[in-house]
Amino acid sequence: MNTVLSLTGISKSFGKIPILHGVDLEVHDGEILSLLGPSGCGKTTLLRIIGGFERPDRGRVVLAGKDITDVPPHRRPVNIVFQRYLLFPHLSVFDNVAFGLRIDKVGKQDIERRVREALELVGLEELADRRATQLSGGQSQRISLARALVKRPKVLLLDEPLSALDQKVRINMQAELRRIHRETGTTFVYVTHDQQEAMSLSNRVVVMNAGRIEQIGTPAEVYHRSATKFVSGFVGDANLMAVEVLDSAGDGAEVKVVETGQRLRLRQTLPQRNATLVVRPELLRLSTAADEGLSGTISDIAFLGSCVQFHVDLDGMTLRVQEPVGGTPLTHDVGDSVGVVLPDHPVHVLTD
Ligand code: ATP
């Protein structure tokens, strides 16, 4: 995998407040890489450093083998798409997209061809003559994309580009972004705080927390093999169960759940005395036999469409269990005593 962009030791403070703490990151050529994290964790600041809108206090930015740390934004072969589409209202769609090419003094015929291609790419060639003010939110964001892509950037930076759109348009635009990415092969670095969006769009996800990278991995890796408690809780939902290992030999382990004191047999060995099990709600199963697995009482039931979510109160802890609906009527009710059964396969474990 070729690296197109590398960040090394990036630190940044605003006044006395440190925002980024020595971030190292390699972006692969042609991938969609998402920077995912809660509000304020520094993802936009990192993106702005790549774009040249902020200067890091320490660290280097290298793009296609060239150190661009001190290169101003307009001289960098990157373009950025913002959350709010900053189109020129008095210009037509065509002129908005052509704007950057005119500044670069690209020839008239080339501009005509490239703008048409870019508008076709985002599926809006018929709107070329429209004023920018006469567009819907989704259309405006497509034009912003066309305007950025027409410059053929080495890396396209996207800062929460879909968050101002309503849910339906957003899902639609996610598919559009995947298609545009496939057709252009451009490297995307995509900032979002929405884990569903990061997972569905990206080849790799960078999970950030308080100015540091907690994990970099494919969506499946960060979901199934989260490196930290923070990642497991931020990417999807996870039950975290602290356990004390009582015995571990052969193909299994006997553990005690710290919070409830209940014992549990696992299909895996656990080398350390203390561990935290990370169990996704959809991996747990309810049993009507209260003595199978961990015993508890259903305290809440929520129908989520493709599945039903149960809250099961154990002595001192609540587990979330998701079961597929599958057309069968609900057999459980609030107040029922149930067993919560772990999967037959090894579960993901974090050792402290
Ligand atoms: P969000 O999703 O809310 O945009 P983020 O992870 O992108 O969050 P940043 O925008 O990078 O976070 O901001 C990180 C922190 O830096 C925040 O606390 C923010 O208030 C602060 N910050 C950002 N830009 C500046 C600035 N120019 N001056 C001072 N503080 C800033």
Automatic annotation (TrEMBL):
Pfam families given in the database record: ABC_tran (PF00005), TOBE_2 (PF08402)
Enzymatic reactions: ATP + H2O + polyamine-[polyamine-binding protein]Side 1 = ADP + phosphate + polyamineSide 2 + [polyamine-binding protein]Side 1
Family under the similarity heading: Belongs to the ABC transporter superfamily. Spermidine/putrescine importer (TC 3.A.1.11.1) family.
Domain ABC transporter: 5-235
Quaternary state and interactors: The complex is composed of two ATP-binding proteins (PotA), two transmembrane proteins (PotB and PotC) and a solute-binding protein (PotD).
Top-rank lineage group of the source organism: Bacteria
GO MF terms held by the record: ABC-type polyamine transporter activity; ATP binding; ATP hydrolysis activity
EC number annotated for this UniProt entry: 7.6.2.11
Broadest EC class assigned to this enzyme: translocase
UniProt keyword annotations, A-Z: ATP-binding, Cell membrane, Membrane, Nucleotide-binding, Translocase, Transport
GO cellular component, as recorded: ATP-binding cassette (ABC) transporter complex
UniProt protein name: Spermidine/putrescine import ATP-binding protein PotA
SUPFAM superfamilies found in the cross-reference section: MOP-like, P-loop containing nucleoside triphosphate hydrolases
Role of this protein: Part of the ABC transporter complex PotABCD involved in spermidine/putrescine import. Responsible for energy coupling to the transport system.
